[in-house]
Design a protein that fits this description.
Order of helices and strands: EHEHEHEHHH
Structural class: alpha/beta
Helix content: 40-55%
CATH topology of the largest domain: Rossmann fold
Largest sheet: 4 strands, parallel
Shape: globular
CATH architecture of the largest domain: 3-Layer(aba) Sandwich
Number of domains: 2
Number of strands: 4
Radius of gyration: 20 Å
Length: about 190
């Protein structure tokens, strides 16, 4: 896609950081913007700084971990602009504690934002037909060919080697990662 002028970009996590930078670049390219963030006040402030006409901008408070919020975002984008040409599912979260120190609620929050938001976006943005003259839809790269005789890898397929890695791999704290690895090796060696 070389000419972005008049095309539509949907950007989550658009109130700050990379999401805001993506929105600024898309606005400079002349794109119509659908911006989403969980912090509505910060998103409104960020939107005021963008060089885009009011009729080419939609902002919405969205909790990307909630499927109904992603569905409503997709509806707003397709109803207002007829199609989505660029989907930047940018919202993401993380915690710096060790993995075994995280609570179930922490894991649910992280997976909701970082994993389920992607699943919800795929389900609600990709299969939509474009409105005539409205443009396209987000595309994913084609799947890699698999060797003959290998079963397809899908959402339900277990991958024991990855599960093993998750169980055995020590968590690494960003500040003292080397120390954490050494301590974990000593524990596993005993």
């Amino acid at each position: 896609m070389h000419d972005l002028k008049g095309k539509t970009a949907v950007i989550t996590g658009a109130a700050s950081g990379i999401g805001l930078a993506l929105a600024q670049r898309a606005a400079r390219e002349g794109m119509r913007l659908v911006l989403a963030d969980i912090d509505a006040a910060r998103l409104a402030e960020a939107a005021k700084t963008l060089p885009v006409a009011a009729d080419a901008l939609v902002t919405r408070r969205v909790d990307v971990s909630r499927e109904e919020d992603i569905a409503a975002l997709a509806d707003a984008a397709f109803v207002r602009f007829g199609g989505v040409h660029l989907l930047c599912n940018n919202a993401g979260v993380g915690l710096t504690r060790l993995s075994w120190e995280l609570t179930t609620a922490d894991w649910e929050w992280i997976l909701g934002v970082n994993l389920w938001s992607v699943v919800h976006a795929i389900r609600h943005f990709v299969p939509r037909p474009e409105r005539p003259g409205g443009g396209g839809h987000p595309r994913s790269p084609p799947p890699r060919p698999r060797p003959r005789g290998h079963p397809p890898r899908g959402a339900g397929r277990r991958e024991p080697h990855r599960e093993h890695r998750l169980r055995r791999r020590p968590a690494v704290h960003p500040r003292d990662g080397r120390l954490q690895r050494q301590q974990a090796r000593r524990r596993h060696a005993v």
